[in-house]
Amino acid sequence: QSALTQPASVSGSLGQSITISCTGTTSDIGNYDYVSWYQQHPGKAPKLMIYDVSDRPSGVSNRFSGSKSANTASLTISGLQAEDEADYYCSSYTRRDTLPLFGGGTKVTVL
Amino acid sequence: QVQLVQSGAEVKKPGASVKVSCKTSGYTFTDYYIHWVRQAPGQGLEWMGWINPKSGGTNSAQNFQGRVTMTRDTSISTAYMELSRLRSDDTALYYCARDRGLVLVYGTLGYWGQGTLLTVSS
Asked: pLDDT confidence of A97, banded at 50, 70, 90?
């Protein structure tokens, strides 16, 4: 199965909002609401930021929000802060007994 | 609190095997899928496979089928990932991570190990 498609990089100024897209197919994002987003800082393990398209785990800032339309999921970071500079990965459930899929990752730069 | 603690860094020669452990604590080990994910230097995340700690059932990515074996020891709440016939391009950071339950392989990885660096070099 192919990976989900993300832009390689997205940048924004402090305080601005940015959106990262994650495009799949009807076999994954388009047919299931089990999309997750992970943040990874250099040298650190990934951290779950969003699950089930738009839910935030306890402790994750409400500046992070998720949505989905058809085969594309999106992560929006509002009020961009310096510590948001990191790599972001999306993932999606595909079907029972198969492996989920990751996106290729998006590097977020805060200008 | 939930913790996943992995074994230390490894250096192996091409053709050898490596076994990485993932010791869990703070929850009931048999109630959540454990996934293995790897990340080559400067690259993205790659799903290797998962194990159902209750049944021992596994599933691995096509890229690794025949080379990866995932097992568990429920008595010590530990999962293992063994990769055989190592190649230089297996050099990567290997993570274990816990899913949200056992109903489905959601791939919602809320807890991660610290990673185990594997270097494959002659």
From this structure: low
